[in-house]
Write a structure and sequence with these properties.
The complex is a heterodimer of chains A (275) and B (411). In chain A, the strands form 3 sheets. Chain A has a 6-stranded mixed sheet, with helices on both faces. In chain A, strands 2-1-4-5 form a 4-stranded antiparallel sheet, covered by helices on one side. Chain A has a two-stranded antiparallel sheet with strand order 7-8. Chain A is of the alpha/beta class. The radius of gyration of chain A is 20 Å and the shape is globular. Chain B contains 5 helices and 19 strands. Chain B has a 19-stranded mixed sheet that branches. Classes of the chains: A alpha/beta (275), B mainly beta (411). Chains A and B meet through helix 2, strand 7 and helix 3 of A and helix 3 and helix 4 of B. Bound molecules: adenosine-5'-triphosphate and magnesium ion (MG). The site of adenosine-5'-triphosphate has 13 residues of chain A, from strand 2 and helix 1.
Chain lengths: 275, 411
């Protein structure tokens, strides 16, 4: 059974600390949801685990089945079984979806899938996600609508069958039908029991389709609260205000300032609150 | 003379974009000159209107390298092809498939009918070539006509004339392989209503040198497509040009070049709009990799006073794969009439897109393979515009071979 362990992860971007000690364990078959305000570092966590060069790991560890993920190159991580569905998938001009998918499948599986079987597999996966077959001959993400890009990410998830899948706001920008179709795709992968899923989201609406085993509240670069799916409903009702205030108080404590309520409230208000 | 009002309205239709990304991008400042006349060129060095044309090599001064046209070219590497000191020692081997071809000499009446040389190098080749090829196109040809030229170590002058009769439709491919110091001009006569695609594929050995002026005259309501693919050779310098013999003509220039360490691949285009209601599109992409790799793209477009209703756009994109490589890009637009349908150019030289690399790598694809895929995609975008699937596949294979043999990009 695959397990991804993130321990005390600190990450900075251009000398600015974004992640301040993240601890998280994800096992195959589990679904975790991370919710948190804009700019709290959710995508940073996702990219850091995937190995994006922009992020510097200053301390902490990430292991997949005991193997040091941080020592691996980006492609090694993917071949080890990590997958990131991106919040903003990248356009690759001149490279068709079918060429791209086949290159990825060849890399991850360690051998080129037999052409005839592959064509069938790709077609089935596209049909399941209600994607027009014409997408196969279009260039990767070029001119795709926001929702089409997200379907294409989940198409890759289904074809690559990773051990751990991190889905960064895959639900954002999806219409109601697309949300259902994409969720069903995620659930098909989940149903195999071989994949652990980390779902980064702002909305509980996707959690009606994909039921999380754990919900984590992410504020100012770390997880500040954990619970079951009822925590998501509470967040939707009350927002992140109490966590932000607590975080500001912590920061004030750390700075050695008087931990009076007014100071904490003032600091909290200096941050943009989610609406 | 264009009035101030006319100049203003022209400025409105010109969309110019210039984004030099990355420090190694040598995108020179291009120019748009509106309302120039032969007596008052805005920039005499660039003005096409005032350029001297002649079939007589002796009418041109010796090329020194200080001329605007030659400032990017390393003259020493031409081994005398530009000044007449490289005496021809033979001709390229040629194999022809797809249509009968007639062997011609410099005195053939069609020689010089589309091309009047703009420099000494082209004039020398035009005067002194021994064996040229005349391809006559009539009707619609299902299969491409292929002229496969192979160098076997000689200094050679050559000449190709493609004479497309009215309403002919065909693809002509000129392949260049082997080792040679070769200067050869190409003339394409596109008859009224004809549709001709000319492909010039440079797959020379590493030490070859190739100079070629490729001039087309496009008839009334005719279409001409020039596809240039430059991959091999120590130095390649091509001059594709077009003029229009009547209104309603359309010319499309698609080009790509991949320069490895030490290679100089130069493409200088000139689109001369004199007839009314003609269209031109130029799309060139180059990638450079390794020390001394150098591509040069010059795109000159002249819209003469009579060329009302002209619609033109030029695009050049260059990809710097390593910091020790160089790409120069100079678009120039001279406009002498206010009554145009559209005119503009865009040029950008940038580094490899790390986000594309990350995206592919995050799907398990190694960095080297990801770079290969992205560069191939960068070029494929142009090939997708040719619209002849068998040709696209063939050219993609040529590029794949080139990328496979190119030294791997350091990470
Ligand atoms: N190059 C950079 N320089 C400085 N700060 C940066 C840089 N890149 C990202 N950041 C900051 O890192 C913080 C975390 O960004 P991240 O994208 O991880 O947030 P997020 O939680 O995913 O937000 P959202 O919900 O809006 O997607 C933000 O405040 C962002 O501005
Ligand atoms: Mg984000």
């Amino acid at each position: 059974m695959a397990v991804l362990e993130i321990r005390d992860l600190h990450v900075s971007v251009e000398d600015k600390q974004i992640l301040a000690g993240v601890n998280l364990t994800i096992r195959a078959g589990e679904t975790h949801a991370i919710m948190g305000p804009n700019g709290s570092g959710k995508s940073t966590l996702a990219y850091s685990v995937a190995g994006h060069p922009k992020y510097t790991i200053t301390s902490g560890t990430v292991t997949l089945d005991g193997e040091d993920v941080l020592a691996m190159s980006v492609d090694e991580r993917a071949r080890a079984g990590l997958f990131l569905a991106m919040q903003y998938p990248v356009e690759v001009p001149g490279v068709t979806v079918s060429n791209f998918l086949r290159s990825a499948a060849t890399a991850v599986r360690g051998e080129a899938p037999k052409l005839r079987l592959w064509v069938k597999e790709q077609k089935q996966a596209m049909t399941a996600l209600e994607m027009d077959p014409a997408f196969a001959s279009r260039n990767v993400n070029e001119g795709f609508s926001g929702g089409e890009k997200k379907r294409h990410e989940i198409l890759q998830l289904e074809l690559l069958k990773p051990k751990i899948a991190i889905l960064d706001e895959t639900d954002s920008g999806l219409d109601v039908d697309a949300l259902r179709v994409v969720s069903e795709g995620v659930n098909r992968v989940h149903a195999t029991g071989e994949t652990g899923t980390l779902l980064i989201t702002h909305y509980t609406r996707i959690l009606k389709y994909i039921v999380p085993d754990f919900v984590h509240v992410f504020v100012a670069g770390r997880i500040v609260e954990e619970g079951g799916k009822e925590l998501a409903d509470e967040l939707e009702a009350n927002g992140y205000a109490k966590y932000l205030a607590a975080d500001a108080a912590d920061a004030a404590d750390a700075a050695g300032a008087a931990p009076d309520a007014a100071g904490a409230a003032g600091a909290a208000l200096s941050r943009p609150l989610p609406v | 003379m264009a009035s101030a009002d006319a100049a203003l309205s022209i400025a409105d239709v010109i969309a110019t974009e210039r984004d030099a990304l990355g420090k190694q991008g040598h995108t020179s400042e291009g120019s748009i000159a509106v309302g120039v006349t032969p007596s008052t060129p805005k920039n005499p060095a660039d003005a096409r209107v005032t350029r001297m044309l002649s079939r007589d090599p002796d009418a041109f001064a010796v090329i020194t390298g200080r001329e605007e046209d030659w400032r990017f070219t390393p003259l020493a590497r031409l081994h005398g092809l530009h000044d007449g000191t490289a005496a021809p020692t033979g001709v390229l081997e040629v194999t022809v498939t797809g249509a009968p071809v007639e062997t011609i000499g410099p005195d053939h009446p069609l020689v010089g009918s589309a091309l009047t040389p703009v420099d000494k190098a082209a004039a020398l080749a035009l005067r002194d070539f021994k064996e040229g090829q005349l391809v006559t196109l009539d009707g619609e040809l299902a299969e491409p006509v292929v002229l496969s030229f192979r160098g076997t170590g000689q200094v050679s002058y050559g000449h190709v004339v493609v004479d497309a009769k009215p309403f002919a439709k065909a693809v002509v491919v000129l392949e260049h392989t082997g080792q040679a110091l070769h200067s050869g001009n190409v003339e394409v006569l596109v008859g009224d209503g004809a549709d001709v695609t000319l492909v010039s594929l440079q797959e020379w050995d590493d030490s070859s040198v190739h100079l070629s002026a490729q001039a087309a005259v496009v008839g009334r309501d005719a279409r001409f497509t020039s596809v240039v693919v430059s991959l091999g050779g120590d130095l390649v310098r091509l001059n594709p040009t077009v003029t229009y013999a009547g209104p309603g003509g359309s010319a499309e220039f698609l080009g790509l070049a991949f320069a490895d360490a030490g290679q100089h691949l130069e493409h200088r285009l000139f689109v001369d709009h004199e007839a009314r209601n003609c269209r031109s599109r130029v799309t060139y992409k180059t990638a450079v990799q390794g020390e001394g790799a150098h591509t040069v793209w010059i795109g000159d477009v002249l819209i003469r006073a009579a060329a009302e209703g002209t619609d033109t756009y030029e695009l050049n994109r260059n990809l710097l794969l390593t910091p020790d490589a160089r790409a120069d890009s100079v678009p120039n637009l001279e406009i002498e009439t206010g009554e145009i349908a559209g005119a503009g150019h865009a040029s950008a030289t940038g580094r490899f897109d790390d986000e594309q690399l990350f995206y592919l790598q995050s799907r398990g694809i190694t960095a080297d393979e990801a770079r290969r895929i992205v560069v191939l995609g960068f070029f494929t975008e142009i090939l997708q515009q040719i619209g002849v699937p068998s040709l696209e596949e063939r050219l993609i294979t040529a590029i794949e071979n080139e990328l496979g043999t190119a030294a791997q990009v350091p990470a």
